[in-house]
Amino acid sequence: MKAKTIRIMMLVCGLLGLSNANAQQRDSLSIDLNTALEIALSENPNIKIADMEITKKQYAKKSAYGALLPEINLIGQYQRTIKKQTMYLDGGFFGGDIDPTQYTPEELKVVEVLGKMMTPAEGAQDGIQVGRWNMYTGGLNVSLPLVVPSLWKNIQMSEIDIQTSMEQARSSKINLVNQVTKSFYSLMLAHDSYMLFRKTYVTDSINLENITNKYKQGIVPEYDVITADVRLKSIIPSMLQAENMMKIAELQLKLHMGIDNDIPLKIVGTLDDYDKSMFDAVIPADTSLLHNSDLRQFDLQAEKVKKMYEMQKLQFAPSLVSSFQYTYISQNNDFKFSDYKWNPYSTLGITLSIPLFNGGQRYNNLKQTELQINQLQYQRIDLQRNLKLAVKNNIDLINKNIEQIVATQSSVEQARKGYDITLKRYETGMGTIVELNSAALGVTNAELQYKNAIYDYLAAKADLEKVLGYTIEPVNVNK
User: Is the domain covering 24-67+151-310+361-468 a CATH 3.90.1150.10 domain?
Assistant: First the structure.
C-alpha cells in the first residue's frame, strides 16, 4: 500500500511538472540557429555601435571636404583705449620749424588746421596723440584655400577611415556569428546531456522498482536492491550539473543575442539532427586568407600610413590661400551711438606660403613614417603566418573530430547492444547487477562522447569559417 501511494505521488508530481513545462514552452522563445543569428545581428549592441562608427566616419569625410570650401565668419569687436598712441612727425606741428617752400598754400592751410586739431602729447613737443577712446569694428571675413595639397591627401585618408570602419563592422558580425553559433551548440550540448541523464534516471528508476519487486518475491538478493539504488542516486549530481551548465549556456547565448535574461528560450532540435548534414562541404574549397577580416584591416591601416607619408611630403610644398575682408569701423570718445559714423574698410588678398625651415620637424616626422611603413611590412608577414597556422590547426581539428564521431557512433551502437544482452542475462539469472550497471554506464558514457564529438566538430568548423572570413551560413538541419 505504501509503495502504491508513493507511485501515485510520483505520477502526480510528474503530471504537474509536465504541465509546468508545457506552460513554459508556450511562453518560451523557440529558436533554431538561423533565428538566433538573425536576432543577434539586429539586436546586439556591438553591431549597432559598429554601424554608428561607419556613419561617424562618413561625417568625418564630409568635414574633410568642407576644408576645401570657403570659410565665412562674421566678426564684431569693441576696444577701449587706455592710453592713446603717440606719433611723431619730422618737422612737427608743435614748436617745429616748417619750411614754407615745401608746401603749397592750400597744404599750408591744412597743416595749420591740423596743428590746431591735434592734441600734443604730454611731455613731448613734437608728438601728437592719435585715435579715440572707443573703437567698434564689425564685418565679414572670407578665406578660401586655392592650393593646399595636404588637404587633398587628408580627404583620401578619410575615405580609408570609412573603409576601415566598414571592415571593422564586418569583423564584428563575423565574430558575433561565431560566438552565437558556438553558444547555440553549447546550449544544445548541455540540453542533450541533461535529457540523456534524465532519461537514464527514469530507466534506472524503473529497473530499481523491478528489482525491488523481485527482492520481495525472493528472486534476487538485497545486494541488488542496494546497488540499483546507489546507481540511481549517483545519476542525480550529473543531472544537476548538466542542468546548471544548460542555464549558464542559455545566459551566454542571450548575452550574444542581445536579449533580456528573463526571456526563456526553447532550443529546436538536438545535436543528433546534424548527423546527416554536418559532413556536407566539411572544409571550404577556398582556404586562402583573401576574406580574412584581420588581414584586410591590417592592409587598410598600412594604406592609411602610406597616405600619411605622402601628406607629410606635401608639407614641403607651398600653399596658396585667398582672403577677403569687408569691415565697418567707428571711433568715438563718447557713447552717443546715434551720432556714430561708420566707415567701411575692405581688402582682397592672396597669401603664398613657402615652407623653408621649422627646426627639422617635417623631415623627422617623414623619417618616422618611413620606419613605420617598414615595420608594417614585417608585421603583415607575421600576421599572415599566424593566420595560416590557425587555418591548418582548425582543419586538422576538424579531421580529428570526424574520426572521433565515426568511432563514438560505432561505440554507441555496441554499448547499446551490450546493455541489451546484459539485461537479458540478468533477467534470466545468468548475469549480476554489477554487470548490468557497468553496461548501463557504458551506454551513457558512449552517448556523451558521441554528442561531445559532434559539438567539437561543429565548433571547429565555425572557428575555421571565422578565420577564413566567410559570410557564415547556418547549417540547415531540416534537409
Answer: no
